[in-house]
Amino acid sequence: MPQVSEIRSNLRRATTTYDEEMDLPQHVVEEYNTRPVIERRPTTVELESIALQYERNYNAAKDQRWHDQQRFMGKENEAMRLVNIMHPHKIFRLLRRAGVDARIEAPTFDVWVPDDETGRLIKIERERSNGRLWLANVAINGRVGVSAWVTDKETGERKRRQVTTLQWPCGPEWSLLHFDEFDVPITEKYRGWRTAMLQMILQDVVTEEEVNRAFGPVPLHSVSLHYRQQLYTHRQRRVGLIQ
User: Fold this and answer.
1) In which domain, by residue range, is 111 found?
2) Helices 225-238, 193-202: crossing angle, 10 deg rounding
3) How many domains, in total, are found in the chain?
C-alpha cells in the first residue's frame, strides 16, 4: 500500500494577514495622494495618425451626407430655423380658424359595451368619424402624432392613419437636425411644424392654400427653399406635368 506523507513547507509562517501586510503608513498614503499626476500627452506621430484616421472615416461617410445639408448647419442657420415656436394645440387652433376641421381630442375613444357571451361590460376602442385631423392622446419621444382620413388609391377605401408628427410640447417653424462627428445627419433635433404641414400637403390631407391662410405665406429666404421646391414639384404632379 502506497505511503502517504505530509509535505511540510520550509517557509516561515505568516504572522500578519494580507490586509495588514498591505496597510501602508499614513505618511506614505498622504505623500502618494498629494503627488502631482503627470498625464502623458500624445506624440506628434500619434496625433497625425488620429487625424489621418478621422479624415479617412470622414471621406468614407461622404455618400451619407446630403448635398444641401449646409442649410441646417451652423449657429446662424439654426437661429433662423428656431423661430415661431408653438404648441400643437395652437397650431390646430390656427388650422381651425382657416377652415380645417382639426380636432385636439384623440382620434379614438373607449366605450363599454356588454359582451355577447358573458354579458359583462368590456372596453372596446372606436374611431371618431367626425373631423379631418386629430392629435394623438400620447406623446412619444417628444413627438405627438397627427392622424387624418386618407383615401386608399388602390381600393378607394377611406381610412384613418397617422400622416405626420408635431414636436411636443412646443416646436419651431423649421426642423433642426442632429449630425454625428462625420457631419452625417442622423435624426431630427426638433420637428418643425412647417415640415408637418408639408407632409400633409404632399399627402393631400390639407391644401397649400389652407396652410397659407392659417400661418401666412412662406417667407422667402434660404431656410424655406427646400419647402418651396417640394411645393412646386407637388403642384406640377397634381396637374400631370410630371409623374
Assistant:
1) 67-238
2) 10
3) 1
